[in-house]
Amino acid sequence: MIPMTASGLTQIVLFLLVLLLAVKPLGWIMARVLSDPADGQQPVLSRGESWIYRICGIRPQIEMTWVEYSISVLMFNGVGLLVVWGIQRLQGWLPANPQHFDAVPNDLAWNTAISFATNTNWQAYGGETTMSYFTQMIALTVQNFVSAATGIAVLAALARGFVRNTSQTIGNFWVDMTRSTIYILLPLSAGLALLLVSQGVVQTFEPYRTVTLLEPTVGADGQPVTTQTLALGPAASQVAIKQLGTNGGGFFNVNSAHPFENPTPLTNFLEVISILIISAALCFTFGMLIKDRRQGWALLAAMTIPFAFLLICCYWAEQQPNPQWSSLGIEATANAEHSGGNMEGKEQRFGIANSTIWAVATTAASNGSVNAMHDSFSPLGGLIPMWLMQLGEVLFGGVGSGLYGLVLFALIAVFVSGLMVGRTPEYLGKKIEAFEIKMAMIGILIPCAFVLIGTAVAVSATVGKSSVFNPGPHGFSEILYAFSSASNNNGSAFGGLNANTPFYNYALGLAMLLGRYGVLVPVLAIAGSLASKKITPPSAGTLPTHTPLFVGLLIGTVMIVGALTFVPALALGPVVEHLTLNQVPKAP
Amino acid sequence: MSTKHLPPSMWDRKLVREAIHQSFLKLTPRVQIRNPVMFVVYVGCFLTTLLWLQSVLGHSEEPASFILGITLWLWVTVLFANFAEALAEGRGKAQAASLKKARQDVSARRVSEKNKQISEEVSAHDLRSGDLVIVKAGEIVPADGEVVEGVASVDESAITGESAPVVRESGGDRSAVTGGTKVVSDWLIIRVTVKPGESFLDRMIAMVEGAQRQKTPNEIALSILLAALTLVFLLATATLLPFSIYSVEQAGQGRAVTVTVLVALLVCLAPTTIGALLSAIGIAGMNRLSQANVMAMSGRAVEAAGDVDVLLLDKTGTITLGNRQAAEFIVADGVSPEELAAAAHLSSLPDETPEGRSIVVLAKQLHGIRAVNLEAIGATFVPFTARTRMSGVNSTDREIRKGAADAVEGYVRSQGGAFPTGVKSIVERVAKQGGTPLVVAERARVLGVIHLKDVVKGGIAERFAELRRMGIKTVMITGDNPLTAAAIAAEAGVDDFLAEATPEAKLQMIRDYQQGGRLVAMTGDGTNDAPALAQADVAVAMNSGTQAAKEAGNMVDLDSNPTKLIEIVRIGKQLLMTRGSLTTFSIANDIAKYFAIIPAAFATTFPVLKALDIMQLTTPSSAILSAVIFNAIIIVFLIPLALNGVKHVALGAGELLWRNLVIYGFGGLIVPFIGIKLIDLALAALHLA
To answer: Directed axis angle between helix A66-90 and helix A142-163, to 10°?
Structure first.
């Protein structure tokens, strides 16, 4: 029996439909913003833009080589990182701190700074108990914008590598960054924030409010509890960009499971669509930028098909009754009375379908925001989000970074299949040679390496093991999930692991840094190398890369690299859990 | 094509014996480090050997017999890889041996610039570039050079395998001689053009022996990919040790995975199949080229041949037969077709040129005209000369001439006749159709015109269609006028043509294509081809051509057959396809190996993982051993494929990919499941596991 409900499947289909409908219009607008200045189609669009250039001393006509572009990215992100660290350390003296939070501890401040600069938004802190409004708005939200804009800028530079013929330069980072921020991220976020506020997401500078409980309760110490403190703050403005920019860092600790971040079914739908919308639309943008839209659609198909498949798998796994319960005679199959399946760790108001859509979307994109606890998913249901991250965050992935990551896999797929048709492989009119392969493999290898090495260190060291709440294979899954999330710049947490320790703060911080720039810099190197090459026009002997066959090959490459790298580790975590769970309990 | 350079069969006993010997010699680290994938296996061998020694001494992580089994098969894996390479090299060496015979130390007679009569005896080794030597009938040409004086026939079979001697003479396009060839008649004075040790023969020997073999760009890129994949698997297996230790701690049962098993897993996962065969594939590609009697000066050129987008082909000899043939008799006003045919026939009977013979054949076919004995009718033949530009017959009562229109016009005038305007228009029409008009006249009377046509080679149009399907554009190069060229181009089915081609126009055309991102291949033989040859990406010089052409090209065709270019493209493509297909096969194999090894490796910690053992292998140790054995013997099974190349079919890229993906991708997924299961059954039957 297939334990899926019609309402659940309808929501999944509706979600995919709305997402895909948005791709073309948004993609078209973004292509206008990111068009190649070499084509002479990139006029300064507003006075605000030229004003920014004048203030910052940016000369927008100056083109950069890939090395200059990389240095600009690294310096810009580096300075941003230091600023975020500094604000956290100084927040006690800074304004907009109604709760009078003290300085964030050093290891946590570093971790958080790295986390937001790298578009990871791994949160080893609880927002409402750690960060002042000032820190949330000036440090974290600003990075939400610029780290996302950095991803878009690098993608635009990569696209130029394909279309430019024997050029040394790939555009100007400052221009790409500025335009991505002010024409794409700001307007979308402003609109979304207003919609969220209309639904009840809080947006205020007022201090936390203490309210009297309608139904008093008894605390752990046996004393009656009659009041509760409600955390408030400028949440809507941060929630909008955390979703759109695939950042994921919640204003409150429980992220989008919190009623002030995600109060209604409508906000849930808007927020979950926002996770994927820019990454999906960038495929169309990329197609326009390289002047071959079919290629963009093919890349979108390569993202959407496995995404939809894994989403259905995850929903199926969560809707499945727990076999251990069934053997005890507990009814856990969906029927007219109840939803059935695994409701542990899920909000009643979202249910299984919306929790799995969110879980799969947030890990397919490198978002990391949550509306349910992944730790409580069934073993297979939890395996899918974990594996989606381990695939390198390329099925949608982060804004810009997902697509440029997928292009790395496309280069590998083109290389092997190009050889199979007897030609030096070409992708989008450029020959793929040793340098591109080397860089692509570095970009693919580095996040994989840090997932595995990080997990290995953590399970070997006492400081790593002592943070695990759940022993056994599930504890192993929790550590593996944490390093998968950090190395691939996702930021979602499985839970069940106390990651706010110096060991995890520094180890995961390092994984986030290397996982971000270990991919970004090789991508820029590829962009530079491709730009300097001649364009090879396609012929009948050229492998077409917009066909279903190639889409299949690309999906296969992503899946096989992901599977071959992580099967042994997954076997020891979720797979063992699943097999153990399904063992029929012996009669007592 | 000659057969002299065909290598011995792949499994020739002597070659195999030598290859086995070489496989052991190649076990030194210096050789192994060149191949990163196999080097990992090599290091793994040492590791398990040490573990085995340790287990013999009583500190055992696994039963000694199991470690020994794994260790032996790992060494066998390395040996099989060495064997594949040695076998490929061996086939080249056999070829080289026959070439080396030609490189005996011969003595040369050096002459001085001023007086070419006085010569001094020196060893061929002492000849320097620029020296003059005299070579007489029966002597071996001591070094590569350019003929400066004399005409001689030369036996080049040592190089080309072709036994018929060729003429070499000073000046023109037939002035190059190759060291090691033999003058069979007359004498030559030769200016040596190479330094000792850099002769054509030396380069040829080095090439077939693989001594100078450098990795080609594509091979380097693939090596990087394979090395990176190996690194991924190294990480995945190495981290499995701490993962396993942690799992044992947590589960409170079983024992951690052993190093032996991890090494076995790593070797199985690493792309050893393609890693082991990669260098053999490259060597075999060069060998296939030399079997086709083409000498590539670099492996890079062979690879580039697979990428070629545009083929520039000379019309004469490549697209058309060298000779024109009579296709039609067109009569002048008031002349019967039989009369014209009879006159043309009579005038051509003694004409031994291919054109003349074709006229005789056509007259017989169309009008049933039979041969007559010229002597019986008292006729004498008037041969063609450059001055008259006509040929014909004179008999007591008749005088027939045939030749170019203007020549015959002069002849008719001199006989007191007039050249009819009707014939003039026929002549123009024939020329427009791409033919050569031959006018036939009997004294003052013009009888008509013979239409001589370029004959397109049989089957060439199909080959061009095949190339088109593969995405390769063909361009015909000809000195003909555009009208003639267009007519022949249309008949042969080439995509484009360059008429009235000059060397400059040819060079410009190549540059234009390259500017547009295309890779261009061409053949050439003359000195004036040299700039174009140097510019082209794949340039095949004819061995019969000049030294300048041979130096400008990156390949030399010993058969001097311009059609060979198509064959070269095929070999280039096949080389890349073989690499790609075996890479796909190698990676696809890993899925099955995971299913074999993962449940086995963690059998004691997590017995539930037994559910993944879909092959139902006998025991954990036999599962691991079977995977390792499969991994080793698949190399041997694929040696023939690596050496002969995957089957080449002329298909578009998409269809070709489907085909190879189904065979090597899907096949690579299925085969190891069957293979590992069979080996496991065999091991169980032999009580080895």
So the answer is: 170
8 Å CB contact between A375 and A494: yes
Among the partner residues B225, B236, B244, nearest to A565 by beta-carbon distance: B236
Residue numbers in A near B470 (CB within 8 A): 540-541
Distance, in Å, from the CA atom of A119 to the CA atom of A404, rounded to the nearest integer, reads 15
Q: Judge whether A551 and A301 are in contact, CB under 8 Å.
A: yes
With CA atoms as reference, report the closest residue to B193 among B217, B176, B213.
B176
Chain A 56-85, residues with CB within 8 Å of chain B CB atoms:
none
Chain A hits for B581, Cβ within 8 Å: 419-420
Instruction: Report chain B residues whose CB lies below 8 A from the CB of A484.
Output: none
- Number of CB atoms found within 10 A of residue A337's CB: 7
Tell me the domain boundaries of chain A. Answer: 400-581
What ranges make up the beta strands (E) of B395-508?
399-403, 436-442, 445-456, 473-477, 496-498
Q: Could you say which residues of chain B have pLDDT below 50?
A: 1-5
Give B521's strand partners.
B311, B538
**Model pLDDT, residue B5:** 47
CA pseudo-torsion sign B158, B159, B163, B165: negative
Its pTM stands at 0.87
pLDDT of residue B161: 67
Read off the amino acid at residue A258.
H
Q: Which of B144, B155, B173, B314 is catalytic?
A: B314
Instruction: Quote the tokens at residue B257.
Output: 């995975």
- Position A22 scores a pLDDT of 95
* Residue B662 contacts A, CB cutoff 8 Å: no
pLDDT at B1: 36
Q: How many other β-carbons are positioned within 10 Å of the β-carbon of residue A462?
A: 7
Beta bridge partners of B452: B326, B436
Chains A and B: how many Cβ contacts under 8 Å? 210
H-helix or E-strand containing B286? helix B272-291
Whole-number Cα distances in Å, A538 to A78, A426, A459, B511: 41, 9, 50, 18
Best of B37, B230, B232 to mutate (most A CBs within 10 Å, chain A): B232
Catalytic site includes residue B126: no
pLDDT for A585 equals 56
Q: 3-state class of A449 per DSSP?
A: helix
> What phi, psi does A409 have (nearest 5°)?
-65, -35
Residue from B216, B218, B310 whose CB has the most chain A CBs within 10 Å, to mutate: B218
Nearest to B601 by CA among B258, B267, B247, B270: B258
Question: How much is the pLDDT for B3?
Answer: 41
Alpha-carbon gap, residue B84 to B278, rounded angstroms: 9
Distances (CA, A) of A511 to A78, A125, A409, A518, B632: 16, 18, 21, 10, 37
Question: Which neighbouring-strand residues pair with B121?
Answer: B109
Alpha-carbon distance of B688 to B598, in angstroms, equals: 21
CB distance B168 to B155 below 8 Å: no
Enter the ipTM: 0.91
- Which H, E and C letters describe B506-554, residue by residue? HHHHHHHHHHCCCCEEEEECCHHHHHHHHHCCEEEEECCCCHHHHHHCC
Q: Does any CB of chain B come closer than 8 Å to the CB of residue A585? A: no
Which H/E stretch holds residue B381? strand B380-382
Q: B245 at the A interface (CB within 8 A)?
A: yes
Strands in B436-442's sheet, in edge-to-edge order, are: B320-331, B445-456, B436-442, B399-403, B390-394, B380-382
- Walking along chain A (588 residues) 10 residues at a time, the average pLDDT comes out as 77 95 95 77 72 91 94 96 96 91 94 94 91 94 95 96 92 93 94 96 93 88 89 94 92 92 94 95 95 95 96 92 80 76 88 93 92 92 94 92 96 91 87 93 94 95 88 90 94 87 94 95 97 86 88 94 91 90 62
